[in-house]
Amino acid sequence: MSTEPFERLLWQQLAARGAVQGEFTPALRMPWPIRLLMGAAGWLGALFAQLFLLGSVFAVTRGNGPAIAITGLLMIGAAILMYRTTSQDSARIALGQFALAASLGGQGMVIVGVGESLGIDRLSQTAVFWLGVTALEAVLFVIVPNRLHRFVAVTGGWSAATIALYIALGGSMRNPFLMMPLTVGLLGVLAMAAVMVFVLNEARIAARGTHALWEPAADATLVFGLSSALIITGTALPSEFLFDGIRHLQTPGNWVPGVLVGVCLVGFAQIEGARIRCDAGIRIGLMVLAVAFSGLMVMAPAVTAGVLALAMALRRASLPWIGLAIAAILLGFIWYYSTLQWTLLVKSVTLAAAGVLLLAARLALTRMPRKEAIA
């Protein structure tokens, strides 16, 4: 669906306010099938190039960790140069995907090379190693000027930080699920809080000219936060058929992430109420609704995180964020309803009460004064 009519209407509204000048010029966009084919061509070319390169390097430098790491750094450097190369749109798409594949391969070679040098079996069991991976992803996030690469780097950084925290807290691979509320859950809450900070300060970030830098980080952080909430919601699934010695994954403290995500939801509701100048009664009502809903869904933090993501998405009018939020809410409800440690009566009452609260929230929102609020 073309967005040109909406862009033209927005331009006319901004021009009427005096915010922009001149005639609207529609942006030329390449059809998505062509972009898909060019991206696939880039990955295919990168696959063959890296198979040849990796085969040559590992054949010559087998067991030579420093040589493997240096080759990986050279691949990352080549990827950065490709990202900074300007060309036509079709070539830029293919070159960008080639560069992404080269960068990911280079990162893997750096990690393997360092591990070969210091003992990969021993090193991978330390938090310092995974913190180093996090630092590598942070550096690449800053120096590589590409939105998709920054998204991947932030995702990798959050994942490596999760493993580092798990090891630092004394977790073992024998039973990693017992540590999930303190690792995946807490970092997921931290991620949702970071996204909330971005949304609340997005106007200032754009005014400083750093929006292109931090927006992909916010996208990746939101995906990580929602995924973490889904994982915590799903740790109660019966899995004794898949994992020996683990029955229903009764993880200690699995209520903590739900409580903390609820705190974020209450805080965001209050901040938004103040921003759009709601009266005190409406703000108190929103706070009561947010507290009650978070309390009901404390064992399904994915639903609360999805509602928070939906509120943030509506503030910044982001369709991709709205899709992610709705998917998290639906999957969170489905996953919660699929658990077996709760009775059907408890789940039915919880879901019915959540529905009543949502209807009450809708009634409260329809009674709010309709006026434009500019942040």
UniProtKB/TrEMBL annotation:
Instruction: List the keywords (alphabetical).
Output: Membrane, Transmembrane, Transmembrane helix
The organism encoding this protein is Cupriavidus metallidurans (strain ATCC 43123 / DSM 2839 / NBRC 102507 / CH34)
TM spans (from-to) = 36-59, 65-83, 95-115, 127-144, 151-171, 177-200, 221-243, 255-274, 286-313, 319-337, 344-365
Q: Which InterPro entries match?
A: DUF4401
The answer to whether keyword Transmembrane helix applies is yes
Q: What is this protein called?
A: DUF4401 domain-containing protein
Q: Where is the DUF4401 domain?
A: 31-368
Q: Which Pfam families match?
A: DUF4401
